[in-house]
Amino acid sequence: MMERDYEKPRVIEEGIITGGRALKEAPKIQGISTGVDGLDELFYTTEIKNKKIVKKSLGGIPALSVLNITGASDTGKTLLVEQFTIKQAELGKKVAFITVETPAPFVSLSLNERARAMGINFEAIEDNIVLIDAASHSSLRENIPNLLTTLTYAIKNYSVSSTVIDSVTGLYEHKEMLARTIVRQIFNFLKKWHQTALLVSQKRSGHEELTAEAAGGYAVGHIVDGTIVLAKELIMSQYSARLFGRPPGDIVRLFRIDGCRMCGHDTRTFFLEITETGLLRIGPPLRS
Ligand SMILES: Nc1ncnc2c1ncn2[C@@H]1O[C@H](COP(=O)(O)OP(=O)(O)O)[C@@H](O)[C@H]1O
Ligand SMILES: [Mg+2]
Predict the structure, then answer these.
(1) Is 273 in the pocket of ligand 1 (CB under 6 A)?
(2) Of all protein residues, whose CA lies closest to atom 11 belonging to ligand 1?
(3) Of 54, 104, 130, 235, which one has the fewest beta carbons inside 10 Å?
(4) Averaged pLDDT score across all residues of the chain
(5) Could you read off the pLDDT of 90-140 as tens digits, one per residue?
(6) Is residue 18 domain-resident?
(7) Domain range enclosing 202
(8) Which phi and psi (to 5°) does residue 48 adopt?
(9) What is the per-residue pLDDT for 46?
(10) Gap from CA of 172 to ligand 1 centroid (Å)
């Protein structure tokens, strides 16, 4: 019989860290503004003051979190990440925008439009945005090591602090069994490089509207730090007309934070508005 070489199990010492040391290395919880009216107030930390729990708004998504933005098509995912990009660029931060479906020139047109709607001069901030065009280059889209090496280059050379990927679903089209591995690789990479990140993922029409499930199964939602779900509903029954307080034939847009392990957050479902100039705005909470 053939002798097999088994690697003798060994202690991976760098994998052990005491609670105290880990806490010292933990990031300070602070908010990163999204540029979406009403969204930044929905994340909070809690403090105990005079034996009472006091909620303190973060004023943004938690820094260094990797969040999944999911929803069916036309629910406002791209608008959300564009607003985030413009807002961060305006604050003088560098953002890497990995575009997987739309070639970079079209994305920049759209970013330009978003800036104008937000009352921000695009020319003054355009160099804070680093586009990585995986839509035009299959060598980036179809090859995750190439993509991450290119992102490393951008992060180092432009001092990038936030990363947007629109969409991660486009990175595992026709190979959904790889979704988990790909998302895990990207997540670990973003953590290692201290990025605050928004990963757009697409829902299929078969998925429940307001769940975190996205194409690729639960791959994305289970790996990332939190999920924001966007939905769009056509009012077709008296029941939903009553529920949403709108007449049949109307479209209602909805917004919900589906969990975040970095800090507290509002758990209600909100109406979502898209203004005429294409800006997302969180509306009032839905109550039945
Ligand atoms: N420039 C714009 N002006 C007005 N409305 C817009 C603009 N761009 C997009 N919208 C509206 O917002 C919706 C959501 O757009 P988008 O963010 O691209 O959706 P998703 O990325 O989820 O597919 C569109 O269907 C459209 O109705
Ligand atoms: Mg989109």
Answers:
(1) no
(2) 278
(3) 54
(4) 92
(5) 999 999 999 999 999 999 999 999 999 999 999 999 999 999 999 999 999
(6) no
(7) 29-285
(8) -100, 115
(9) 87
(10) 23
Whether 113 is in the pocket of ligand 1, judged by its Cβ within 6 Å, is: yes
Q: At what angle do helices 144-158 and 179-192 cross, to 10 degrees?
A: 20
195: in domain:
yes
Q: What is the pLDDT of residue 287?
A: 77
Q: What is the pLDDT of residue 2?
A: 54
Say if ligand 1 is within 6 A of residue 77 CB.
yes
Residue 36 pLDDT grade (very low, low, confident, very high; cuts 50, 70, 90): very high
| pTM (two decimals) | 0.92
The CATH number assigned to the domain holding 238 equals 3.40.50.300
State the distance from the centre of ligand 2 to the C-alpha of 76, rounded, in angstroms.
7
Domain assignment present for residue 12? The answer is no
Task: Kindly state whether residue 210 falls inside one of the protein's structural domains.
Answer: yes
Closest ligand 1 atom number to CA of residue 167: 21
Task: Please work out whether the CB of residue 112 comes within 6 Å of at least one atom of ligand 1.
Answer: no
Distance between first and last Cα of the chain: 70
For every residue of the chain, which 3-state class applies, written as one string? CCCCCCCCCCCCHHHCCCHHHHHHHCCCCCEECCCCECCHHHEEEEEEECCEEEEEECCCEECCCEEEEEECCCCCHHHHHHHHHHHHHHCCCEEEEEECCCCHHHHHHHHHHHHHHCCCCHHHHHHHEEEEECCCCHHHHCCHHHHHHHHHHHHHHHCEEEEEEECCHHHCCCCHHHHHHHHHHHHHHHHHCCCEEEEEEECCCCCCCCCCCECCECHHHHHCCEEEEEEEEECCCHHHHHHHCCCCCCEEEEEEEEEECCCEECCCEEEEEECCCCCEEEEEECCC
Which is higher by pLDDT, 30 or 209?
Answer: 30
Which ligand minimizes its atom distance to the CA of 277?
A: 1
- Ligand 1 within 6 A of 121 CB? no
